[in-house]
Amino acid sequence: MLSRPKPGESEVDLLRFQSQFLSAGAAPAVRLVRKGSKRDGDADPDRPRLQGPRDVVMLDDLPDLPPVLVPAPPKRARPSPGHPLPEDEDPEERLSRHDQHVTAVLAKIIGKPATSGKRSIFAQEIAARRFSEARGPPAGEVIHNLDPPEGTCEAPAPMDQGCQLPGSSQSFQGPHLVTGKGLRDQEAEQEAQTIHEENVARLQALTPEEILQEQQRLLAQLDPSLVAFLRSHSRKQEQTGGKATEEQSPGGPSIRVIKEEPIMSPSANGSREEDKLQPGAPAPALPVTPHKEWLHMDTVEMEKLHWTQDLPPLRRQQTQERMQARFSLQGELLAPDADLPTYLGLHHHGEEAERAGYSLQELFHLTRSQVSQQRALALHVLTQVISRAQAGEFGDRLVGSVLRLLLDAGFLFLLRFSLDDRVDGVIAAAVRALRALLVTPGDEELLDSTFSWYLGALVFPLMPSQEDKEDEDEDEDPPAEKSPKCPEEGSRPPPDLARHDVIKGLLATNLLPRLRYILEVIHPGPAVVLDILAVLIRLARHSTESATRVLECPRLIETIVREFLPTSWCPVEGGPTPSLHQVPCATAMKLLRVLASAGRNIAARLLSGFDLRSRLCRFIAETPQELALPHEEAETLSTEAIRLWAVTASYGQGSDLYRELYPVLMQALQTVPTELSAHHPRPLSMQRVASLLSLLTQLTLAASPTALGPTGDSAEASLSATPSLITWAQVSGLQPLVEPCLRQTLRLLPSPDLWSALGPVPTACLLFLGAYYQTWSQQLSLCPGEWLQDAERLLEELLLPLLSQSALGSLWDALRLCSPLCNPLSCAPGPEVLPSLVSLGHAGDCPPLSLAGSASPFPFLTALLSLFNTLARIHKGLCGQLAVVLTAPGLQNYLLQCVAPGAAPHLTPFSAWALRHEYHLQYLTLALAQRVAAYQPVPATSAALLHGLALALLSRLLPGSEYLAHELLLSCVFRLEFLPESASGGPEAADFSDQLSLENSRDPRSKRGVLLAQACQDLPSIRSCYLTHCSPTRAGLLASQALHRGELQQISTLLLPVPKEPLLPTDWPFLPLIHLYHRASDTPSGLSPTDTVGTAMRVLQWVLVLESWRPQALQAVPPAARLARLMCVFLVDSELFRETPIQRLVAALLAQLCQPRVLPNLNLDCPLPGLTSFPDLYANFLEHFEAVSFGDHLFGALVLLPLQRRFSVTLRLALFGEHVGALRALGLPLSQLPVSLECYTGPPEDSLTLLQLYFRALVTGALRSHWCPVLYAVAVAHVNSFIFSQDPKSSDEVKAARKSMLQKTWLLTDEGLRQHLIHYKLPNSNLPEGFELYSQLPSLRQQYLQKLTSGLLQNEVSET
């Protein structure tokens, strides 16, 4: 049995099988039967099979190359056996004659004469139209004339030319109605053409007059409906032909057929005008005439073709009404009257079609188009609009915020939907728009350029500071203690989250998995990859929670590390890169660095779970020149790798890499002087050098004994803390390499251009030296004499020569020009600031004279002061020499302007970032002054200035600076060295000032000078009181202390708390007193008398010191707020105000409030900080006075102070209406009234209700002169002024009340009260009654009184 071929057999095996089959002569398994054709009918089953030689494949004679393919001969139809083809007939003509297609069939229908009457006119019209279509070119087609040259005209053939009447341009191209239908196929076309030629010949033989006569005769004989039909048919053909000839092809010239209007009678013209109104007739205003032959033009709807008409003229805006903003395709705002050409593509058939540009609503509509190009275009335009709005290009030309309008309209979720698109172009446009919305271009540049500043790696999270009420308690917790996701937020829908926080709303839409899918599966282009990485960086900067979600997104970080941080790749030359996949990307390394900055645990997971150690070694071991990448990308990648290591080293992690890369770091340090000596240092190279020095600073701090292990109780620190593997011996050799770099940079200080080109390199050198000496001084096993001698050497050889340079003085002078405090407008918020989308609002390049500008002295001087503080702490003998820096004139002028009262910058994300760096310089200045003051006296002027700066800084410090606030409370604020007035006659001067302003003599023990002297002696107790009540929470204090002291193992995150407000309120001197008031309100049983009296006395002492010697420290607290805080002393306890020290201190403070320079600023009607309503507080105060005062004069003085005439009548109504019983206890003598009596009596009272209450209290005896002399005089004055006023503009009700009150006064039985009310003249506090009386009434008053009283007497006589 023969075997069959198997898979894998070669051609030789197949040939062998074939030869075996033929030699065996076996029957084949398959038989071929020739089947009969359908044309011949069914095949004969008995017909014998065709026999012939079998096909045998032979490979011997085959050529090596395949044969050349040539066109095959034309295939001809095979004739059937019963129908042979004639030899003289062309097969093509025969096929055309037997064509059964519908167009060919309809074209060959020949119409019968119209007189036959067997076919309708409509059917004849249809047949004629089909026939004309089959003969000539379709309507609208241009017939090109390519053969004849320009200026010549070749005569066409007779059949193409047609016939033309003599003297007319009207031509006849062929028969219109006579089609030859009904005749044979061969005769139909010829007969119709013969009839047509005869008709044309007869027309040519007639004159135009004869033609018109024949026309009139035919019109009279034919049916009018038939004539109208023929005319409409003729017009349609004319319009079709005219349009076809007018449309010229741009490829070359074409024949233009010009037709004139046919000769028609007046009646025909009238019917033509009527035909224009028919629905089928085209509108003459349309630039394009529609044809029924066009697709979907069977029924022409004119109302849908209006958009093809010419644009209406642009309407000029005559009023100031607001108009809808329209933008160009580049996002530019177009003026309402901009007249732009239509070829720019800015006009459309929407609303206001005459105006160019697209509105935001139209762009939104376009983003949901079914055409992907339109969706991408709309997203591109919106991206440009957002970018220009953030750059402030629109200015005040738009009403409202563009970003706010877009977010309210749902633009955020529109972008999220667009990311799910299937078209790559739409996805790219959506990612670009998302980056434009979330990422401010200058923010990252700003944060990167300041990474090497003093604590520059610490940043505020870019998250909103105003959260919902249910989230406020969680926001107060430190970031390390927050849960990854709050259950309340997880249950809220994304739109609600996005309304308060855009980032949280985006994360709730599963954005991260989609971005991972785009990177992992779609493999987008380089621009899209960079946009996605920028968006991820912005998400990581939001908060620790967001960074954790980015880290925990499945396969996201794995994809980024695998695709964009490979350890091996193909070399990339300069120029655009077609793909970033499998190519190292600096932005990806930066993303990992930002993630590591969010928390210690995240950094540890990155190092251990993604093999970052090998990648750090790969990109740091080689110089940027050796990396097979473009130079700029290689520099940035190396810089970001060093920064990532520096961030992990700030947690005490990654120290094992130091041993492996120690030779690399030493080699890099040795090449720094070469890079610094370049004529024009490159910015990227300087950033890399500064980052390297920052890394060495963190590694040096890791060698400190405090970094060997965790010592705090932080759970996160204890879990992820690892003992440092770096010893002092491994970092002690770094100083000899860094110090020459600093020397080389300081030589360039006199050259401003070269100095600014160095960037943060000098700052990083100084910070490294400070960390080096700090760590050296903590080595217990070393001899202190070594680092003391080395510190002296550094001061003599490097720092003292630096202090003597005039160039350093110019840096001190530039502080005022670059200070955000001195220039609040430099921190003004950007044009597009949203509370739900936080950004620094940094538009781009900073001005040179700004805190972050190229000429800013802040980074270098802050680092210099940090080094001075380190040297002064470890070597106290250097304090005298280092004190020279505090006397710099530029520094003194800067501090004076910072202390002066003025408008502080509004707290925004950018101002918080800038002010934090400025506060570092101010604190380091105060810390150095405090160390110097311990060994040598500070000049009085400088001491007062520094103390004022400490008080101002304490109320300005932001969250994250808790350690600085605590240190200020411990040192500068409550130290006698900074209160020179205590030792230079300050108390005596205060007493002398009081004697000049007060005529009465006081108790010697209650004089202000004695109280101030006692307060200076009690400063330690005062400090303890404020440390108890004003210190931050322990967790916040420990976290801030670890950051500022370099305790690496205690640092949990490099993200600072959200800067909602300063750490301490502006009225922090009253804070312990406010705490007492709240505790008393919450404790019905009362507080401990000892603690209450002590705390209240310390607070009042300190406030008196500030009021007397540092009034600018309380400038931000309004006088009304100070009065409200003094009232709290009486509301805390029923016995507290009776204590003699409290009485004396409150009296002294009340006298300060009632001084002529302060009293005009006392405004009780404006909102007060920390107080919901002053009338409510005053009502509570009156109730307490009525219950526990027992006629205390000091208590009564505070009750009377808000009753002045210029304050709200509500306060006076509260006393005379609801607490009239308190009048008997207000026995304060007129001589002890702290303000003038005229403040209560003028101007005259205009409240009728209060006047009636005054009169009732006087008449009923509730208000008497010996009970309440002050208010008795006030009430008499106002009632007298009211009853004798004769204002003609008064209402009838007031006139009637005035008349009634005067009559009742005349009838009073109390002669004394009657005499006072009628004969009152002027207020006079020196008299017992408090006012003067008329001995005789003026004539006008006497006449007015007699007029009313005479009528009253007449009424009494008539009644009797």
From TrEMBL:
It is found in: Nucleus. Signal peptide: none annotated. The lineage of its organism: Eukaryota, Metazoa, Chordata, Craniata, Vertebrata. Residues 32-98, 233-288, 466-497 are annotated as: Disordered. PANTHER family: RNA POLYMERASE II-ASSOCIATED PROTEIN 1. Its main location: nucleus. This is RNA polymerase II-associated protein 1. It comes from Tupaia chinensis. It holds the Pfam family TPR_RPAP1. Residues 1069-1289 form the RPAP1/MINIYO-like TPR repeats domain. It comes from the Eukaryota.
